[in-house]
């Protein structure tokens, strides 16, 4: 009866935390600091998820293989669907498009989030970054809302070479 | 493979938020304010969960019936197990004991949370209060850690009479 309660709870909690972060802080600097903290919380979660599931992970052939796993298995486990579109410039930039992103889907109804909606993606940016860092793929992740609830995540790999 | 990812994610996120709340604030007053905000976030989540699942809920005979539903169905949906023990003084106080509370279980390992562990229960206190408020059972909810990961929630009904 309350089977999907858990999913809903995470979304509600996440939405409320982001909302609280936005509401409280007034100075631009303070907002930036909090956003960056939220990204770091995502990063830690990504790292720890990877640690926890390491023994279940396949052996990855290469970088693209890792990104594909992120788009399919990881995305499905966390967001209940796969990424809809994956593009790359073959120079270390990957763009993931989700046309119905779960963290935007429910919050979008009835809230005045449109102008600040990209802040709802910050935690996920961190999550991706942490997950990839654990798999030895350091990167920078940014995101943009295209139109609710569609969004894009840009993964810029940081190569040592 | 990553089936239980979602559960873990919520726990990680919750743990990190509570940890951030504790780390940042130094003044006792500020901590209290943040704790109270976290309780309110739980309250809102509880309310909204109840709204969302109202049509699936049974008709409740009485107050005890509502509390029993909370201990069994609600607890299972959110925390993956039932409450282990329910007691009441028949004067509007209910004590729920969970001998292996999910929000304490994983965080307890390797973190110095023991002295401040009751703060990990604040969100759940709010959640219970919100859920019951939606079912027209106003109450105050407090919690105590007995020994990790066992805890008790005290529900004090607020009767209009």
In N-to-C order, the SSE pattern of chain A is HHHEEHHEE
Overall average pLDDT of chain A: 85
- Which secondary-structure class do the elements of chain A indicate? alpha+beta
The Cα radius of gyration of chain A reads 16 Å
Tell me the β content of chain A: 15-25%
Helix content of chain A: 40-55%
Determine the most extensive contact between two protein chains: A-B, 31 and 31 residues
Distance between the termini of chain A: 54 Å
Helix run count of chain A: 5
How many β-strand stretches of chain A? 4
Oligomer state equals homodimer
- The geometry of chain A reads as globular
Question: Could you explain how this protein is built, in words?
Answer:
2 copies of one chain form a homodimer. With 161 residues, the first copy, chain A, is an alpha+beta fold. In chain A, 50% of the residues lie in helices and 17% in strands. A 4-stranded antiparallel sheet of chain A has the order 1-2-4-3, covered by helices on one side. The first copy, chain A, is globular. The first copy, chain A, starts with a helix and ends with a strand. The interface between A and B is medium-sized, with 31 and 31 residues.
């Amino acid at each position: 009866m309350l089977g999907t309660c858990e999913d809903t709870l995470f979304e509600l909690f996440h939405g409320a935390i982001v909302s609280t972060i936005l509401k409280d802080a007034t100075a631009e600097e303070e907002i930036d600091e909090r956003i960056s903290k939220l990204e770091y919380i995502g990063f830690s979660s990504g790292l720890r998820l990877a640690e926890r599931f390491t023994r279940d992970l396949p052996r990855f052939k290469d970088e693209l293989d890792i990104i594909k796993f992120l788009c399919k298995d990881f995305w499905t486990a966390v967001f209940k669907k796969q990424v809809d579109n994956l593009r790359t410039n073959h120079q270390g930039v990957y763009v993931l498009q989700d046309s119905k992103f779960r963290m935007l889907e429910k919050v979008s109804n009835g809230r005045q989030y449109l102008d600040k909606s990209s802040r709802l993606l910050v935690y996920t940016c961190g999550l991706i970054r942490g997950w990839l860092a654990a798999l030895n793929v350091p990167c920078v992740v940014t995101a943009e809302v295209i139109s609710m609830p569609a969004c894009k995540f840009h993964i810029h790999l940081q190569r040592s070479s």
